[in-house]
């Protein structure tokens, strides 16, 4: 976020700018910090513009008192330009302050939310244990079935042999 991005800020967009979903806590912190830094920068520029406005207002007053119309006209033009700059910066500050307030609220919520992380290797091992133990039970059952079938076949042979005798 830098000062060139301020044009896209508007009251309806504050909520969208303050959306932290999909960001890790560290990423969200950096994002919030960039907005706060930009707000502080705008506030410093606003203070400087206010001083410039006061300077040109004073110069216009002095030129008027000395009845120097040309100097007074130039000073008034500079004063009006400074006034427009102050108003523009005040609007930017207002928008940024609203967004920063929302960001801080959303960041506080994000900090309270437990961060879900998945250890892929551990999860894979657990799955292999589960599947492996299920497979081994199937194998044991299959072996028992084969053994039972074999014993049944031997029993049948005995019965047939006894019947034939």
Written account of the structure:
The protein is mainly alpha-helical. 81% of the residues lie in helices and 0% in strands. The protein contains 4 helices and no strands. It has helices at residues 14-17, 25-65, 69-112, 120-164. Helix 2 (25-65) runs antiparallel to helix 3 (69-112). Residues 1-11 have low confidence and may be disordered.
Summarize the structure.
The protein has 165 residues and is mainly α. The protein has helices at 14-17, 25-65, 69-112, 120-164. 81% of the residues lie in helices and 0% in strands.
Categorize the overall geometry. Answer: rod-shaped
Instruction: Specify Rg, calculated over alpha carbons.
Output: 39 Å
Main sheet, how many strands, which sense, barrel?
Answer: none
Judged by helices, strands and strand pairing, the structural class is mainly alpha
List keywords for this structure.
disordered N terminus, 4 helices, mainly alpha, 165 residues
Topology:
Layout: H1 14-17, H2 25-65, H3 69-112, H4 120-164
């Amino acid at each position: 976020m830098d000062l060139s991005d301020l044009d896209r800020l508007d009251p309806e967009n504050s909520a969208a700018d303050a959306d932290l979903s999909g960001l890790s806590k560290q990423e969200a912190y950096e994002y919030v910090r960039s907005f706060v830094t930009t707000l502080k920068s705008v506030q410093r520029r606003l203070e400087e513009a206010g001083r410039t406005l006061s300077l040109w207002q004073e110069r216009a007053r002095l030129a008027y008192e000395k009845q120097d119309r040309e100097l007074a006209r130039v000073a008034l033009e500079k004063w009006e330009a400074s006034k427009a700059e102050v108003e523009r910066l005040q609007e930017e500050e207002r928008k940024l302050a609203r967004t920063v307030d929302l960001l801080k609220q959303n960041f506080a919520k994000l900090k309270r939310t437990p961060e879900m992380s998945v250890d892929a290797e551990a999860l894979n091992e657990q799955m292999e244990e589960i599947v492996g133990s299920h497979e081994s039970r199937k194998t044991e059952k299959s072996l028992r079935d084969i053994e039972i079938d074999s014993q049944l076949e031997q029993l049948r042979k005995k019965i047939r042999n006894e019947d034939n005798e």
